[in-house]
Every structure is written in structure tokens, then in C-alpha cells.
Design goal:
Number of strands: 7
CATH superfamily: P-loop containing nucleotide triphosphate hydrolases
Structural class: alpha/beta
Radius of gyration: 18 Å
């Protein structure tokens, strides 16, 4: 694939750390005219693909296999745009993202920066790179609750000792910041950064500016949507990403799909309210968050 054909006109990548409201944001973008949504292809390659560094018999893989196998056939049949994770090498993901997508005005991809494993040669060509950040005081308590929900045996495991394919060495923030620096140094793009609290508190202002910078038509109606996951039928994602959310325990997009709009951010937890094993991780990531925060779109 030597050249990318001119369709669609725009290709956008939204990079995040985990638990940063990205699925709500992606659901919002799903209602833009002419969009093709692609959800977490690099995370799929990193965790479940042929080049995954996770053991097939570890707990997370078992949970996802059991959850997916218990998904009713009627639900699985709806996933017409789902791809099998067994084909998701990093090179395959890159080529898929560079595909022409005929009939689409633009492509919007959400992924987590640590899914790249810092191998920037895997980044697809032709994309504008954008970044959604969130205060680590919000991210890490949510992230730990999620991991313990789907893997109860991890309840007494220190967060920093979680499996590295699930909790990376730089805890998501280091990988995200490094990617942002790479984009600055290797392209003529200035990073487009949104803070999740700003987005929740001032969705019209922040989202309008984001769309304007990307050349995407903003409509006020994009800021409200129906509850539920029906829109997912139009997304391209791996079967594990889409069907995994159907699991009775641990549907990891559950809150996002219940949503109908952006809600005001809740009050931050104090350090006394946060599990002690999370505090060193938060302290390590807070300076990187603040650097990215200084570059954000202002409401």
C-alpha cells in the first residue's frame, strides 16, 4: 500500500490513557455526518493479537473468552463490522487504518497510546493526532475499580504490580506524553489536546473548537444522544472489544453507553479517599498530566 487514496478527506486519531471518557467522546463523534468510527485496534493487537505479550492462559484472557462465548448468538450476529483479533498484528492494524473507506467523509479512531508499545513505525499515515487527557486523581481509582471488577482476584494486588499488558510501565500517561512529543518532533502538527473535565463542564465550547480545528462540521445535536449501544453496530472494532462489553460482569463501556450527554465532573477525591497503592502512581503521572494540560483547548 504505497499511497493512501483521497477518500475520506480527513482521518483523526484520538489518543488517551485508560478511563479518560474516551468512549463517551467516541459515541458523541459517532453522530457526525459521514464518519467511520474505529475503536481500539492497537489495544486489540497489544493485548489479544498474534503479537500480544500476554499469556493465553492468564486470567484476563480466560475472562474475555468466557464472556464472549456466553454472548448470545443474536448479539454476536449484529457485529457485522467486527474483525477477529487473531488477524490483528500491528502491521495489519496500520494497513487497515490506511484503507480507503469508500463513501465516508472522515475516519475517527480512538486508541490508547500504550497499545503502540512505543513503536511509532506502526502509526498510520495521513492522520491528525489529537489527545484526550484526564486528571490522574480521576483515572486511577476508576481504572483499579474496573480491573478488580473483571478480575476479583486482583483486589489485594498493588496497582503497580498489575500485568503490564493491562497496566503499562509508564501507567498510560508516560506513553501518552511520549507520543505527544513524538508528534511534535516528527510532524508539522501541533497537538490538539482536550481535558476531560473541561469537556464535561463546557461541552459545547470545547467540542466546537475541537471540530473546528479538524475541519469537521459541528452540530449542537451531536452533544445529546440516545442511551444504549445500538450505535456500536456501525463501529469497526475487534470482536473482543465489542462482545466483551456484553459480558454480564465487567462490561467496560457500560457507563458510557448508558449516557445521553456529557455530565458535570464530580468533585475530586482527596488523597485520604484514594487507595494508598495508587498515590505513588498518581504522583508519578501528575507532572506529565500538567504538561499536557498546559497545551489544552481552553473553554
Amino acid at each position: 500500500m504505497d499511497e493512501i487514496r483521497n477518500e475520506p478527506k480527513r482521518r483523526i486519531l484520538l489518543w488517551t490513557a485508560p478511563r479518560s471518557l474516551a468512549t463517551v467522546f467516541t459515541k458523541c463523534m459517532s453522530f457526525a455526518e459521514g464518519v467511520q468510527i474505529i475503536k481500539e485496534p492497537f489495544i486489540t493487537a497489544n493485548v489479544f493479537g498474534p503479537e500480544s505479550n500476554a499469556a493465553e492462559d492468564d486470567e484476563m484472557h480466560k475472562i474475555f473468552k468466557e464472556g464472549i462465548h456466553s454472548t448470545p448468538e443474536s448479539q454476536a450476529a449484529k457485529l457485522t463490522l467486527a474483525f477477529d483479533e487473531s488477524i490483528a498484528t500491528f502491521q495489519w492494524v496500520k494497513q487497515m487504518l490506511e484503507s480507503p473507506f469508500p463513501g465516508k467523509s472522515f475516519v475517527f479512531v480512538h486508541d490508547q497510546a500504550f497499545g503502540l508499545r512505543s513503536n511509532y513505525s506502526n502509526m498510520p499515515r495521513g492522520y491528525t493526532h489529537t489527545f484526550l487527557i484526564r486528571n490522574p486523581y480521576r483515572v486511577f481509582p476508576s481504572w483499579k475499580r474496573f480491573l478488580v471488577k473483571i478480575m476479583p482476584s486482583f483486589i489485594d494486588k498493588p496497582f503497580a504490580d498489575m500485568p503490564k499488558y493491562e497496566v503499562p510501565a509508564k501507567f498510560g500517561y508516560g506513553e501518552l506524553y511520549d507520543l505527544m512529543v513524538h508528534v511534535q518532533e516528527k510532524s508539522d502538527q501541533s497537538p490538539i489536546v482536550i481535558d476531560a473535565d473541561d469537556l464535561q463542564a463546557n461541552p459545547a465550547s470545547v467540542f466546537r473548537q475541537y471540530c473546528h480545528l479538524l475541519g469537521v462540521e459541528f452540530k449542537q445535536t451531536m452533544l445529546q444522544w440516545e442511551a444504549g449501544d445500538k450505535i456500536v453496530d456501525t463501529w469497526i472494532a475487534s470482536k473482543k472489544v465489542l462482545q466483551g462489553n456484553k459480558m454480564e460482569e465487567g462490561g467496560y463501556f457500560e457507563d458510557a453507553f448508558k449516557s445521553t450527554e456529557f455530565h458535570l465532573p464530580r468533585e475530586l477525591l482527596s488523597r485520604e479517599q484514594i487507595d494508598i497503592d495508587l498515590l505513588p502512581v498518581i504522583d508519578q503521572c501528575k507532572p506529565l498530566y500538567e504538561k499536557m494540560y498546559s497545551m489544552r483547548i481552553r473553554p
